[in-house]
Amino acid sequence: DGFLAILEKDAKERAKRRKRNEHLANALKEKGNDAFRKGDYVVAIQRYTEGLEKLKDKQELYTNRAQAYLKMQEYEKAIGDCEWALKCNEKCIKAYFLMGKAHLALKHLNESRQCYEKILQIDPQKESLFKDCMNEVNLEEKRMEDEERAMKEVESGRLAALSIKELLQKLDRPDQNILYYTGGIRLLTGAIKDCTEQTLFRTNNGFSILKDNEVVRRGFCAERKNTAEVDLSVSLLFLWQAVCTGNEENQRLLLTYPDVNAQLPKLLSSGVPEIQKQTLALISLYSENENGRRLLVRHQDLTKWLQILMTFVSSTDARASSAMNILSNLTEEERFKTQCRVMLSTSVLPLFTQLLTSAKLLNQAALARCIGIMGNLCADVVIRMQMAECRECWQACLKLVDECFDVSTPKYQECLFAVLGLMMNLLLESNGIIQHFAVDISGRCMSLLREKDGRIVTRAIGVLSRILPASSSAVEEAVKGGVVKKMIKFLKAGGQITSNYGIKTLSICTRSNRQAQEDLVKSDKKFTVLLKLLESENEMIVGNAAFCLGQCLVVPGAATSLLNSNVVMILLKRAGGDATRTSVQENAAIALGKLCVAEPRHIVQLRKLNGLAILNSSMKYVHST
């Protein structure tokens, strides 16, 4: 007993001591983290080391110290700490991540890949991180291969390889006339033909021309450029295109220079057409592929880029198309969308509404693309909400629709098509502004139903299907304008998308408007169109068709007109079916119940089909309606 008591006392003391040491270790970890955030990595390492003296099996202290060692470029020590962290926790993702980084820095490419593969094995949800890390390794491998090949070219005495080095040495001469540097840069650009020359440019510090040469830097960064400075800037932009085309390492390196990062948006806004054209061409190299876009997002403050690039819609030359291509590509990046939120209300929307209201005077092909891009940005809920709450934006959209009746050129039709798509996306929101404009929007869409372009008609019906729920007044006006007869006409001939929008529009109108119910009974004799839609493979169409039918059965004679049809069998099949949308079964059951209540003779057919049980189960829905 005495021995057990001693053991128990010892265990308690050790637990107490560990708790005290853990408290001290955590405090030292926080001090280390604070030093790390301030960039004082030496102090951070000291604090983490002191923490480990208190608690040797604390995984976070090892990984945090490894991270600090990485910053100090002490890669072997970082790897050692990661190995210790994995002894504490064999599934520590951060340890494998940091160890992969350290191996990469030491050119241990296979070991780096193995670390990143471990991350994916531990957590398959980290696939995006895994791809980014493996991409870094692959890029490093390519860089090493390119540089080895370039070195062999130099050693073999190849003339083109030697000329790159000589031209860079000549450009390195200080205090020459600006024209001297412009001419040298053009010669250098002409000498770069392939990956080898691109690599030699990089390995011979070609990118440092902007940092090391004051004449070049001053000319490139001048706010108001004279002719010589414009020529120099254009020459540099051509050079960077030549060295960055298809070369991701050069693309990455170029964006690490602060002057380049700072000047890109300024060059785009410079007002000098040739500078803008070549800046757009350079940025296009980045925006055309995923890695390039990520470099832009990482190194550039893109909050103003949507506004800057949008201004090129006013250009009549190739700049407009280039700017829209870049914007279209950038919208694939979630971080770009997030940055677009910042300036949307204050800068982007005022410019966008101005462009919409000036549609007749602009590059309409570019404007149509710009509107489409704004529509795509609406996939971001924050952006969509801000746009949907902008009164001026709605007014500008309506003005563009109005002008289509005066301008019927193919390019203007593309603008109209795009703006209808934008309106559809914005109508996923619901607010007071939308309710205010509902009658105007539905009225414009009713007018567009006469258009010859089937794409525009389909989108106009789509907008109707989304705007009518916002306003009973809009429904009333649409019904007075003959919307039911028009929808029946389109449903007879329309494809699946038109049918989807058309039957949704009818379901909204017949929900609470008696005139709409009566119009449908008159327009769709014996419910031929609705019965056909009830047999569609599209559950949305079936559900809305069943709802419309159920609503219209209150019209005298409607149920009787269906006596010699197969409506009971169709509704029974849908009510007892296995649709993934329960509303399909519910709407079909309600319609079946209403049918039998309005015209009891349908019950005879129901009995023959053994459907009374389904009818009885549907009665609760009938009574609730």
From TrEMBL:
User: Where do the coiled-coil regions begin and end?
Assistant: 130-157
Which Gene3D superfamilies does the record match to this protein?
A: Leucine-rich Repeat Variant, Tetratricopeptide repeat domain
Q: What PROSITE patterns does its record include?
A: TPR (PS50005)
The alphabetized UniProt keywords are: Coiled coil, Repeat, TPR repeat
Q: Which gene encodes it?
A: Ttc12
Cellular component GO terms held in the UniProt record: centrosome; cytoplasm
- Lineage, top-rank taxon, reads Eukaryota
Q: Please list the GO biological process terms of this entry.
A: axonemal dynein complex assembly; sperm axoneme assembly
**TPR repeat ranges?**
93-126
Task: Please give the name of this protein.
Answer: TTC12 protein
